[in-house]
């Protein structure tokens, strides 16, 4: 069964065969992309290897899961975000962007967990849908503001003209783009730290 977990802290190994079938070595059973998506949601760590070449296919499989979710109508990624993301491939920001996105999502997840914990202590139950929705909207607004610090992501803000880039982007010195990226990363870390501490 796909939902059977390995021991605590263990990473499940999934083998992908030439016929595109995925085999869970921990449960000795074939699994689907949907099973792997459930494992992700359940917090089960796994890696995917090509059964013949032993190449690591984890990134491709996770991307495929996202594609399947989006195709099913579970749209999570805005079209403009996807366009901007594609635009970053092969550019100077490609090396920096993954760590920034990872850091942003980690901070967002921590805030949601802290909020759930606070509500649970205060009310002894999960918060009402209306309160949670409001908090999610606020977090998304803060996330969007943080994204404005990256010149290429300014277009993510609904209704924001392309010329309305962050002031830092307009005044950034062209001489050392790497130093400017580091400065922006430091500012974003500082802003995300404030967000996670202040709620």
Structural features, described:
The structure is a single chain. A four-stranded mixed sheet has the order 3-2-1-4. 53% of the residues lie in helices and 8% in strands. The chain has 199 residues and is α+β, with helices and mostly antiparallel strands. The chain has helices spanning 33-41, 58-71, 79-88, 97-123, 129-147, 167-170, 177-198, and strands spanning 12-16, 22-24, 29-31, 46-50. It is globular. It has seven helices and four strands; from the N terminus they run βββαβαααααα.
In short:
With 199 residues, this protein is α+β, with helices and mostly antiparallel strands. The chain contains seven helices and four strands.
Q: Return Rg in Å.
A: 20 Å
Low-confidence stretches: 1-6, 155-173
Task: Please tell me the overall pLDDT.
Answer: 75
Helix-strand pattern? EEEHEHHHHHH
Q: Work out the helix count.
A: 7
Approximate strand percentage: 5-15%
Helix content range: 40-55%
* Spatial strand sequence of the major β-sheet: 3-2-1-4
Number of strand elements: 4
SSE layout and pairing:
Layout: E1 12-16, E2 22-24, E3 29-31, H1 33-41, E4 46-50, H2 58-71, H3 79-88, H4 97-123, H5 129-147, H6 167-170, H7 177-198
Parallel strand pairs: 1-4
Antiparallel strand pairs: 1-2, 2-3
């Amino acid at each position: 069964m796909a939902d059977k977990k390995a021991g605590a802290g263990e990473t499940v190994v999934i083998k992908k065969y030439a016929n595109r079938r995925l085999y869970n070595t921990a449960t000795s059973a074939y699994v689907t992309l949907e099973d792997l998506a459930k494992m992700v949601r359940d917090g089960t760590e796994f890696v995917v290897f090509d059964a013949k070449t032993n190449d690591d296919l984890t990134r491709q499989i996770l991307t495929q899961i996202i594609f399947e979710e989006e195709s099913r109508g579970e749209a999570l990624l805005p079209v403009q975000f996807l366009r901007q993301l594609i635009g970053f491939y092969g550019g100077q920001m490609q090396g920096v962007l993954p760590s920034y996105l990872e850091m942003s999502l980690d901070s967002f997840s921590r805030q949601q967990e802290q909020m759930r914990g606070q509500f649970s202590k205060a009310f002894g139950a999960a918060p009402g849908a209306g309160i949670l929705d409001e908090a999610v909207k606020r977090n998304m607004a803060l996330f969007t503001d943080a994204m404005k610090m990256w010149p290429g992501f300014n277009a993510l803000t609904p209704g924001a003209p392309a010329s309305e880039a962050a002031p830092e982007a307009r005044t950034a010195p062209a001489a050392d783009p790497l130093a400017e990226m580091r400065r922006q990363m430091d500012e974003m870390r500082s802003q995300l730290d404030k967000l996670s501490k202040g709620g």
